[in-house]
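Handout, tutorial session.
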Amino acid sequence: MTASANGLIGRIRALPPQAWRLVTLAAFVSVANGIFLFSFVLFMLRLGHGTGLQGVLLSLMEVSVALTILPFGMLAPRAGKRRMLFSGLALTAASYVCVALSTELWHFVPGMLLLGLGTSLVTPVISTALADTACDADRKYLMSINAFGMMLSGALGFYLSGLFVGLVGEESGFRLLFWFAGGIVLAGAVLLTRRPEGPCAPAPRTGGGTRALLPFVLPQFVLGLGAGLVIPFFPVYFKLRFSADTATISALFTATQLFWAATYMAMPVIAERRGSVRTLVFMQAMAVAALFAIPLTADFGSTAFLFAVRMILMNASRPIADSYMMTLVGKDLRSTAVAANQLAWMLPHMLSVAAGGALMAFNPEVPFLVCGLLYILSTALYAWFFMKRDDVGKRGQ
């Protein structure tokens, strides 16, 4: 066994039990999220609602997140992480049940609003709790292990979506999936404990207040603006352009998730040697090249390959970026930083997702071009802010 493999296994074994409980909880939530993200747009299409209306409903959910995530993030250190997680999980489960029961277009509105509230409660708290359980030296590994588990769980969600629909039929299968997703989220709640913090000493307070978060927030804003134009509509894009059936699309998403998950285990080792910032910039630059090539393909196989490459490269370094932010940001600002980062991505995304649905219906190639240009700008901004502060060769304390 190589020294790198031994080091990785050693870091994994050193993680405290509370970290593993949070990783397991995140995996439960990811199964449900995978089911919802894959099934919702196809369920809407089955009911006769096109990408334009899908974009409006997704934007409505994101409006709910945008209005609440920053206040919830700022409230988390005082209100208690366990209480906020319980509330967020309950609201998320309720949102899936609302969608399962919906028959008219307006019926989806309460479900999307509840999903936004649940996301606002869960996202800042679970990320901060994970960061608090690990010291600087181990945080990259914990974040990557958590992402690995989430990707495998998301792949399971995609697989179950295709399986249910294949066995039961599209409309009934999708409704059963949303009920199942709600049950999974509630089952994950039993893993919550009273002590989210780990054994490490608290990180120092952050200088500069919330203004210190601007270098993280600005690239996220541009990234969210581009993502909304294309990413939510990939299942519909494959169905409309290539007439791919739901089972085939499900298999593609599942396979992509599995390869994506595998890359997470290599990321902390690469980042420790090459630097977190350099790793992220390189991976995202390669992902943009794959994105630009997708509309130029002529067959489903080539498009599916480029889709998988883009998805893996664009997102594989995300746990490294999260760990890097948690290391630079003091413990007093961590939940606020996660919430601000999510808000910075969500605000433009909730606008561009509506535009993306309309553009996809009008000309499927245009959203890819605009999205790629915005991704280039986001990557350039991140490099500008952090390249001189890269952590190459630093193992933390």
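The second record follows below. Compare its token runs with those of the first.
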Amino acid sequence: MRPRHLVILASVALVLLAITVVAVVRSRAEAAWQAMQAAIAAVETELRAQPTGRAPLWAERGPGSAFEWYGRAAAHLPRSDAWLTQVDEAAAASAPPSNDLRDTWQAALSALRAGATATDVARPLPGRGRADAPEQVPDWLTLARCAALETRALSAGGDGPGAARCWLDAATFAGDLTHQGTLLDHALAATVLVHLCTELPETELARLPPEALGLLADGCARLDATLPARPDPRVDLLAMAALLQTTATAPGVVAWRHGFSVRWMVGAAVADMAEHTRRLETGADAPWSRRAAQLRAAQAAVRADDNQLLRMTLPNLLDIEREWRRMRASLRVLRVSLALHQGREPPDLADPVGGDRIRVDARADGVRIACAPLDEAEVPTRLFVR
């Protein structure tokens, strides 16, 4: 065969090979995309089946959507840097805030209360009209801090029941953030609730009247019963899918392992993350030492995956779940302390860190209430002194 004929045959073979490769890549990409869509549909179905109603922690049921009210509350907050500095300084001080500063957030706290008494906590899912969560975080945090400062001021002014109600409004808001919330929502809720618990030190509980203690004890028990055992990463899966699907191109992402098809790479990343999420449902209630080891192993496996998008979008479940356990421990230790301040027998509560029961030990200096340590340096604890 002449060399020219060999060149022609080789060229034809290369063209046929290229056509075959393109067909295979398109087929794989379409299969991955369909698998992703099926995973998204399954998660959306599961989440939409969840109830969207909840009872208030202390008040009569009110009208409207909780999150619409929370949005109005955030809109009432001043936006100036000078005002935010005043809030920061008031939060750092031990004294109650000034009356002038309190006047600036009364409209916001009125809307917060309306949200806390509303029973509808439905909100759109990611990709279906939900606002961008990172943009809301500063407002949500500021709103909760204002409520905590108002609680401090009401208590210092002798209105213990009013302080308890304001505290529970903020706690309700934090709990509502977990309803179909992203991992960022859960992290924010944990931050707010831990801060609220620190605003009720033992010295503060000791001077609260029985009505206020009763409001707090009942409200904390209801809140504890409604909080999830762990943050639910399924909403983040939808958020990741919505983000990646709108990316026509992926700058900086090399999809050579997926035939240079970003569509294939995106579909595979979302489908793999859905499977990764479902595997982590097992062991969610294990003691923290075992759960932390499971999460570390899962993160290591994803980081070793050849899908760059999967590695880039992996949420830090280890840190988020750790903070969630810390918040649950802080809340339950507070519940035990509230019972003691009321003169009641302490409730026998599960330890969300160690998996056993919260320890209540009488000592010479008081009653020590403690969970298992999250690590060597941190043990959620309180010391009740009669």
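Points raised in discussion: The chain has 15 helices and five strands.
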